[in-house]
């Protein structure tokens, strides 16, 4: 952060104005702070009021409605309704959108596996799916400006031990699906930043090594890839210690880094001690992004515990987000805010 920006934050503080999350991210030189959102929550007015508060969020990611099962439930039948609803909301509020996702083994339309397609046909299907979706959201088709700034082109292609996940795409095409899907996305929207996205990728380890090796190889072969998305589904008190180092080695490959799905879950019930630990954990993660120039932004995986995916997936766990179920800010909010500020000198 420049001295002038820092002085501005101090000035705001001195006047009792709490600088908000996107404001602070921008002052730290980042492009955005954002939140995921799922369509059913758009019926909740107080929820939408905060979601569209641009001082906190200048970016949205649809958490479900740009996935294959929704976008192309049957071969050749495309349904952009849910994705359009979120992009239009973002457009109205001057927020950018991250597209999620062209290719993922989960929430995949059943016909893709059931068809037992051969290599050539699956390549065509992958191209058709990604090209048509990315093209739909590009500026000159359907939307007057391109609001999708980046795409999670491939999601979760690796196992935690760094081996390739044996999906229908891998089993049928080997590694050539990466080439096809990234080239299709680039052809459809040359301006959007194209990412590979995964979880358990925050610190150094076999999985982040494997992603780094793949990105190096794709770039060497001229396959268009611009970024590594680190999801950031973390556990209270267990933030990896090598995040900054890992982000920097990703950046040194010549790509952007973004934290794309941040949340920090805890075992319930919530206690003041756990909330304080969560505040520190959020601060640690945000400070790592702040410290690496090419970490360009952070998205939390929804902003309120009211709509978090965590309780539905991990029994007895929850409270992972910076706003509670009543849409009240938790200490984690201040953790994010202070993570964007330069460290205090001792
Ligand atoms: O669409 C059906 C609906 O018809 C039905 O009535 C309802 C009843 O449970 O289920 C609905 O489907 C749910 C879907 O979300 C849409 O709400 C699924 O059960 C539920 O499993 C699904 O969960 C999503 C999960 O991905 C599935 O893998 C979460 O909302 C979504 O937040 C989560 O997001 C993923 C990212 O895409 C990738 N990274 C991990 C992240 C967390 O799992």
CATH superfamily: Glycosidases
Bound molecules: ligand G3I
SSE class: alpha/beta
Task: Tell me the overall shape.
Answer: globular
In the predicted model, the low-confidence regions spanning at least 5 consecutive residues are none
Major sheet details: 8 strands, parallel, barrel
Distance between the termini: 18 Å
Fold and architecture overview:
This protein has 346 residues and is of the alpha/beta class. It has one domain: Glycosidases (TIM Barrel). Helix content is 41%, strand content 17%. It is built from 14 helices and ten strands. It has helices at 3-14, 21-27, 45-51, 68-71, 81-92, 110-114, 119-137, 168-173, 176-188, 206-220, 243-251, 272-291, 310-313, 331-339, and strands at residues 32-37, 59-62, 96-103, 148-155, 193-198, 227-230, 233-235, 256-267, 295-300, 317-318. Strands 1-2-3-4-5-6-8-9 form an eight-stranded parallel beta barrel, surrounded by six helices. Helix 11 (243-251) links the parallel strand 7 and strand 8 (256-267). Helix 7 packs parallel to helix 9 (176-188) and helix 12 packs parallel to helix 14. It starts with a helix and ends in a 7-residue tail after the last helix. The model has no long low-confidence stretch (mean pLDDT 94). The structure holds ligand G3I. The site of ligand G3I has 9 residues, from loops.
Keywords:
346 residues, alpha/beta, TIM Barrel, eight-stranded parallel barrel, 10 strands, 41% helix, globular, binds ligand G3I
Write the layout of secondary structure elements.
Blueprint: H1 3-14, H2 21-27, E1 32-37, H3 45-51, E2 59-62, H4 68-71, H5 81-92, E3 96-103, H6 110-114, H7 119-137, E4 148-155, H8 168-173, H9 176-188, E5 193-198, H10 206-220, E6 227-230, E7 233-235, H11 243-251, E8 256-267, H12 272-291, E9 295-300, H13 310-313, E10 317-318, H14 331-339
Parallel strand pairs: 1-2, 1-9, 2-3, 3-4, 4-5, 5-6, 6-8, 7-8, 8-9
Antiparallel strand pairs: 8-10
Helix pairs in contact: 7-9, 12-14
Bound molecules: ligand G3I.
